[in-house]
Structures are given as structure tokens and as C-alpha cells.
């Protein structure tokens, strides 16, 4: 039992490969598979009453299969993992824990519908990460619109050598937003061309399948 406890503590602290290297140095040579399997032998702690619940998806395999993670936002601890990402699974979990007063989720339909149906009396809130992400996108869109409306002499057309400015924080996000910004820039250029050609805002909206407020 002492040996198993030591192996489990190493697994919790370091994980698979790192735990295997550590246990060998400690004179407890076990493989990463044995180390991780020993963690499954531990009973899960009771969930208890959770008043502030957070939910989000996580991937078994990115782009292929997703599950749902449930977090107690007061203790910042994971309390459950659901095997799938679906409205039905979220609803079933929330109905089994009716003491929840606040449910934090992203703006995706799965968790919005799950929280609405499973905990109709709880207060739904958007989690901090998605709020900041949405705020960043809104600010970025504002800067792009402002940049496009500057006098033509001050606007540098995007070329393969010089692309539109993106304010995203990470290179990965910059790559994702660059195409979207370029499409918006081209659409704005087309709107301006049609307007300068004498076409009304309503006609431009019909031509480009845009709302009149968007054309304005």
C-alpha cells in the first residue's frame, strides 16, 4: 500500500513520462502505463453541493471527439468529466445537481441550451475567457473599420508582402484572423466602389447580401 501510494503521488505530481523518470530515480521503477493506471484505482471524491458551476468542452482528439468538463468555480477544481459534448448530457448533470445558483458557460448553443434547460432557475453567465475573447474581437473589428475609413492616401492596400494589421495576441490567432480581415477589407472596397458609382445603400445591400446598417 505504501508503494502504491508513492507511485500515485508521483503520478499526480508529474504525469506519465515525467513520473516514469522520477520513480526510476527514486528506486520505484514503473512504466508510465502502470503509473497512470494506478491513478484509476483511486476512488473519485464526492461532488457534493456546487453553487457556482463552470462548464466547457475538452477534446479526446482535437477536431474528432469532444467531452464536457465541469468545474466548481469557487474551489477552481474539476468535479466531473462528461464523455460527450451534448445538450442532453449537460441537462442530465445539472438536473442531478439542482443546488447550482450560477452556471458559467461559453456562448455556444450546446452549453447555452444545456444551462437553460437543466438549470432554469440558475443565473447564466458568460465565462471570463470568452468575454475577453469577444471583447478583443469587437475592439479589433472597430480598429479595422476605422483603418478602412481613413483617407485613401493613408491606407496601405494589403499585398502578399504587406497584409492587413491584426491585433491578435498569438501567432496562431493572427493566422486565423488574417483571412477574415482581408475578406472584410475587400468587401468594404466593393461597397465604396458601388457607392461612388451612384448605387443606393439599399441596392448595395441587395447586391452584396448585406444589411443596410452594415453597408452604412
Per-chain topology:
Blueprint lengths: L1 H13 L1 H10 L6 H9 L11 E10 L3 E8 L4 E6 L4 H10 L5 E4 L3 H10 L4 E4 L1 H21 L22 H26 L4 H8 L3 H4 L1
Parallel strand pairs: 1-4, 4-5
Antiparallel strand pairs: 1-2, 2-3
Helix pairs in contact: 1-2, 1-3, 2-3, 4-5
Structure commentary:
α1 packs across α3 (32-40), α2 crosses α3 and α4 (87-96) runs parallel beside α5. The chain has a 5-stranded mixed β-sheet. The chain starts with a helix and ends with a helix. Helices cover 51% and strands 15% of the residues. The chain is α/β, with parallel strands linked by helices and 216 residues long. A hairpin with a 3-residue loop joins β1 (52-61) and β2 (65-72). The protein has 3 domains: 2-40; 52-126, 2-Layer Sandwich (Nucleotidyltransferase, domain 5), CATH 3.30.420; 130-215, no CATH class. The chain contains 9 helices and 5 strands, in the order αααβββαβαβαααα. The chain has helices at 2-14, 16-25, 32-40, 87-96, 109-118, 128-148, 171-196, 201-208, 212-215, and strands at residues 52-61, 65-72, 77-82, 102-105, 123-126. The model has no long low-confidence stretch (mean pLDDT 81).
| Strand arrangement, major sheet | 3-2-1-4-5
Strand content: 5-15%
Our measurement of the CA-to-CA distance between the termini, rounded to an integer number of angstroms, reads 72 Å
Per DSSP E runs of 2 or more residues, the count of β-strands stands at: 5
Helicity, in percent?
40-55%
Number of helices: 9
Residue runs with pLDDT of under 50 for 5 or more positions = none
Shape: elongated
Computed over alpha carbons, the radius of gyration is 26 Å
Largest sheet: 5 strands, mixed
Total count of domains? 3
Mean pLDDT across the residues is: 81
Class inferred from helices and paired strands? alpha/beta
Reading the helices and strands in chain order gives: HHHEEEHEHEHHHH
Amino acid at each position: 500500500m505504501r508503494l502504491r501510494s508513492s507511485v500515485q503521488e508521483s503520478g499526480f505530481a508529474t504525469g506519465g513520462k515525467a513520473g516514469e523518470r522520477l520513480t526510476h530515480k527514486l528506486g520505484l521503477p514503473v512504466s508510465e502505463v502502470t503509473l497512470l493506471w494506478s491513478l484509476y484505482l483511486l476512488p473519485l471524491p464526492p461532488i457534493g453541493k456546487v453553487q457556482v458551476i463552470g462548464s466547457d468542452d475538452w477534446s479526446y482528439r482535437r477536431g474528432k471527439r469532444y467531452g464536457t468538463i465541469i468545474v466548481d468555480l469557487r474551489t477552481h477544481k474539476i468535479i466531473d468529466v462528461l464523455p460527450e459534448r451534448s445538450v442532453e448530457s449537460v441537462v442530465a448533470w445539472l438536473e442531478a445537481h439542482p443546488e447550482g445558483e450560477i452556471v458559467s458557460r461559453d456562448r455556444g448553443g450546446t452549453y447555452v441550451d444545456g444551462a437553460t434547460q437543466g438549470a432554469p432557475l440558475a443565473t447564466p453567465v458568460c465565462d471570463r475567457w470568452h468575454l475577453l475573447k469577444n471583447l478583443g474581437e469587437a475592439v479589433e473589428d472597430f480598429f479595422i473599420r476605422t483603418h478602412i475609413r481613413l483617407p485613401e492616401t493613408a491606407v496601405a492596400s494589403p499585398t502578399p508582402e504587406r497584409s492587413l494589421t491584426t491585433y491578435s495576441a498569438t501567432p496562431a490567432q493572427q493566422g486565423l484572423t488574417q483571412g477574415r480581415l482581408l475578406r472584410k477589407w475587400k468587401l468594404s472596397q466593393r461597397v465604396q466602389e458601388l457607392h461612388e458609382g451612384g448605387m443606393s445603400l439599399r441596392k448595395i445591400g441587395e447586391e452584396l447580401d448585406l444589411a443596410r446598417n452594415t453597408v452604412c
